[in-house]
Specification:
By secondary structure, the protein is α+β, with helices and mostly antiparallel strands. It has 4 helices and 4 strands. The chain has one domain: 2-Layer Sandwich (Translation Initiation Factor IF3), CATH 3.30.110. Helix content is 45%, strand content 20%.
């Protein structure tokens, strides 16, 4: 999904207050984590996830894979925490609420 700079800034400011909803442990991805992320994106649209994978490259690859697999946009990544956004057609957009 293409987003302009203003929308990205709005989502970053909204995401700053969020606590991580999904946590990926040191053993990597499991099916249950993918299902939980899918439900969270459908319901919240803007989701903060925490990825506890040791290597930076592996962590970046996993975050990118999660975003791609779940058709989400990576808004921001700081350390072990990433902010993902996926618009839900049945709900008003988080960007429109601000």
């Amino acid at each position: 999904m293409e987003m302009n700079t203003k929308q990205i800034k709005q989502l970053k400011s909204l995401g700053h207050k969020l606590n991580p909803i999904v946590t990926v442990g040191q053993h990597g991805m499991k099916e249950s984590i993918g299902a939980e992320l899918e439900v969270a994106l459908d319901h919240h649209q803007l989701v903060k996830i925490k990825v506890n994978v040791g290597d930076r490259d592996a962590r970046d690859a996993l975050i990118n894979k999660l975003a791609e697999t779940h058709s989400a946009t990576l808004i921001q990544r700081v350390g072990n925490v990433a902010l993902l956004y996926r618009k839900n057609k049945d709900r008003p957009s988080v960007c429109d609420m601000v």
